[in-house]
Each structure stands twice: as structure tokens, then as C-alpha cells.
Amino acid sequence: MHDPQILRAIAHPVRNRILAELDARGSLRAADVARELDLPANQASFHLRQLAKYGLIEEDPDAARDKRDRVWRTVNPEGFSVEMSEVEQQPGGKAASRVFRRTKRDWGHLVVDAVLSDEPRKGRWSSLTDTAVLLTRAEAQQLSEEIEEVLSRWGNRAVPDDQEERMTYLYWAAILPYPAVDEG
């Protein structure tokens, strides 16, 4: 993916969360998205239409109750990758890249703050792992692929109908050469 407009579309926090919910839960209606994200239904519909406009989601007619029922699914359940160098070469790409990077940086701060918060999390479980591992570039790539396989297996499993409350959990990780202290 290297279209700056698509990058701007997914940089929006609500749209990013909608994509995450569709990945975790499968096909959803605007009402489902509104309930899960605590948004007005018209706002959820707007963001779903924007994601569809940029080809990130599509209607799922097999999940619809009838022809008027609009149910949405991700176009690519395996996700997509962003080639920032390609995006930045497109007209408007550098600006879109700045917006995307700033949004992701802010999101990272929010995620870490949420994990480290002293506030009770209503019975929710959270963990922060900070591990250094000595690897070659190829080994780092292999480790990343193995973690993605585990996450894919968990994401694609048949969810039991056991009436237990489930919520969408975020697994957030980065693998990179250890940054210098002054790079922050």
C-alpha cells in the first residue's frame, strides 16, 4: 500500500479502531461498531463509508439478513503493509506520512500509559513486555513472522459460544534494533 490518501484514512483513530474491531470480530454492522466504540450510529456509518471508499473494507452480503442490511468486513483479513518510502514519493505523501507517524506515535504513548496506569481495569488483563534479544536481521524477521503466525492462529480460531464475556484485546509490539537513548 502506497497511496497517501489511504494512509490518511487509516491514520484517523476511529477508523483505525474500526479496522481493529473488524479484524478481531469479523463482519459487523454500523450499529455493532457504534455500540463497541460508543459512537453515534451516524458517525460509525460515516467512518465505515470512508474505509469502503478507500478500498479497506467491503460489504459482506453473506452475513446480511436481507438486501437492506449492510454488514462490513475487511478486504484483506491478513492485514496490509505500508511502504512509507513509496508513500512519501507520491504527491502529498510526505504530509500524509507525517500525519500517520504522529498519530501512531501518539497511539503508542496512549497504549503504554494504559498498560502502566494504576487505575483498576475492571477485571481486564494487561501486560507490557520489554525484552532485548541478540539477533541477526534474518532472525529478527523470522521471530516477527513466528509471532504473526501465533497471532493469526488466535485471531482465526473458532470462538466458543460459551457465553463468556469477550472484549477486543490489542497486541501491540515492535521489533527493531535497540534505539539510542537520544533518538526518542
TrEMBL record:
Classification via InterPro entries:
ArsR-like_HTH (IPR011991), HTH_ArsR_DNA-bd_dom (IPR001845), WH-like_DNA-bd_sf (IPR036388), WH_DNA-bd_sf (IPR036390)
**One GO MF term, please?**
DNA-binding transcription factor activity
Q: Where is the HTH arsR-type domain?
A: 5-142
Q: Where is the signal peptide?
A: none
Record protein name field: Helix-turn-helix transcriptional regulator
Query: Whose protein is this, by species?
Result: Nocardioides anomalus
The lineage, from the top, is: Bacteria, Bacillati, Actinomycetota, Actinomycetes, Propionibacteriales
